[in-house]
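explain this:
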Amino acid sequence: MLATTGIYDPKNHIAMNKKVARDIEQFEKLRLRLANDKQAAHDFLVKAGIITEKGDLEAQYKNLCIPHEPA
C-alpha cells in the first residue's frame, strides 16, 4: 500500500481507514462495556485465557516482569 512500491491505491487506503475507524469504534464499545460490568470483564479475561474462573492469573502470565506491588 506504500507509494514507493507502486501498488498504492487511494481507494484501498480510504477503505482501510474506514475499517480501522470501525475497529476502533468496536474496541471502544467493548472497553466501555467491560469497564462498567465487573462480571463481563471477568468473563472476557477467562475466555481470553488470561485468568482462571477463580480470578488467578493463568500460568503463562504469572512470571512476567511486572511488579505485583506498589513501587
Q: What stands out?
A: Residues 3-62 form one domain. The radius of gyration is 19 Å. Residues 27 and 33 are 10 Å apart (CA to CA).
